[in-house]
Task: inverse folding
C-alpha cells in the first residue's frame, strides 16, 4: 500500500518524485508523478480542502446529502490510522480521537488546524479508508478559513477519466488517468475489492497515502490514493498484485492504485451520522 512516512525519513523521501505510491509514518508508500493529463482539465484542481497529517495526506469531505451545519469529516487511508494498521477483517467505529490536521488553501498554504473528535470509521478490509469526524461544522470551517469541503462522488468512476491526486503532506499534485479497475488487489495480509488502477504517469511516493483522487471534469473525489508496486514482487507488503475473478495473478511493477469511495455516502445519513445498516451501504461492518 502507499504507506505512511516516518518523520525521520521525510528528508529521504521528499526527493522521490519518480517513485511509486505512499503514506508517511512507520511504513513507506508512493504517489502519482506529475504529468499532463490525456484529457483536458475542465476544472482547476488545487489544494483547497486538502489536509496534511503527521504521516499521510487527506481531505475534508462531504457527501451529496451533507448539510453545512453537519460536523465536518476528514478522509484518509485505513493504514494512516494513528493507532496502527487495522488487522484484516477489523472494522473500527466511533473510536475517540483528538488527531490534528493542517488545513490547506488553494495554493497549498496551511491556513489553520482542524481537530478530530472521533474516528467515525476505519478499515483495511475490502477498502483502505479512515474517516474522522471533526469538532467543527462545514459552516464553521468556511467562516474561519473560506475553505469548502470536497464532495465525494456517489457513482462509480469511469475508465479513462482524467484525475489528479492531491497530496496535502507533500503539497504536490499528480495527474494521470484511470487506467481500469482491479477485481481484487492483494498486498500482504490485506485484500481490496474493485480498486482503481492509475495509468503509469501516476508514480506515488510515501506520504501521499490518503490523498483525494479528484475527477478533473467535476472536481469531485472519486477515490483515495493508497498503494503501488514498488519492487516488482508478487503480493507482498508494498508490492500489491492484481487477482482476477478466475484467480489469475498479475504483477505490474511501478503501477499505483487507489480505493473507490462512491460507496461511502450511502453509509452516512442525516447529520453525517454513520449507519452501516442504511440502504445501499456496502462497507464492511465490525
Result:
Amino acid at each position: 500500500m502507499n504507506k505512511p512516512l516516518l518523520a525521520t525519513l521525510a528528508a529521504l523521501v521528499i526527493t522521490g518524485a519518480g517513485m511509486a505510491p505512499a503514506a508517511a509514518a512507520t511504513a513507506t508508500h508512493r504517489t502519482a508523478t506529475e504529468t499532463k493529463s490525456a484529457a483536458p482539465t475542465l476544472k482547476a484542481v488545487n489544494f483547497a480542502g486538502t489536509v496534511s497529517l503527521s504521516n499521510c495526506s487527506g481531505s475534508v469531505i462531504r457527501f451529496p446529502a451533507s448539510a453545512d451545519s453537519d460536523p465536518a469529516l476528514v478522509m484518509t487511508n485505513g493504514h494512516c490510522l494513528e493507532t496502527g494498521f487495522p488487522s484484516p477483517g477489523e472494522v473500527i467505529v466511533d473510536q475517540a480521537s483528538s488527531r490534528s490536521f493542517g488545513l490547506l488553501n488553494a495554493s497549498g498554504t496551511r491556513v489553520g488546524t482542524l481537530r478530530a473528535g472521533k474516528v467515525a470509521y476505519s478499515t483495511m478490509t475490502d477498502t483502505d479508508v479512515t474517516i474522522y469526524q471533526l469538532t467543527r461544522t462545514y459552516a464553521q470551517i468556511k467562516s474561519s478559513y473560506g475553505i469548502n469541503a470536497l464532495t465525494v462522488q456517489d457513482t462509480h468512476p469511469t475508465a479513462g477519466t482524467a484525475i489528479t491526486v492531491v497530496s496535502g503532506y507533500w503539497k504536490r499534485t499528480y495527474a494521470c488517468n484511470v487506467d481500469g479497475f482491479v477485481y481484487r488487489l492483494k498486498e500482504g495480509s490485506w485484500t481490496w475489492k474493485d480498486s482503481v488502477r492509475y495509468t503509469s504517469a501516476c508514480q506515488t511516493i510515501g506520504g501521499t497515502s490518503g490523498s483525494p483522487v479528484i475527477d478533473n471534469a467535476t472536481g469531485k473525489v472519486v477515490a483515495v490514493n493508497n498503494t503501488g508496486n514498488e519492487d516488482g514482487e508478487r503480493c507482498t507488503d508494498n508490492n500489491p498484485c492484481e487477482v482476477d475473478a478466475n484467480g489469475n495473478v498479475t504483477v505490474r511493477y511501478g503501477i499505483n492504485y487507489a480505493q473507490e469511495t462512491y460507496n461511502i455516502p450511502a453509509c452516512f445519513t442525516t447529520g453525517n451520522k454513520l449507519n452501516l445498516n442504511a440502504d445501499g451501504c456496502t462497507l464492511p461492518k465490525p
The chain has two helices and 20 strands. The helical segments are 10-13, 138-145. Residues 138-145 form the longest helix (8 residues).
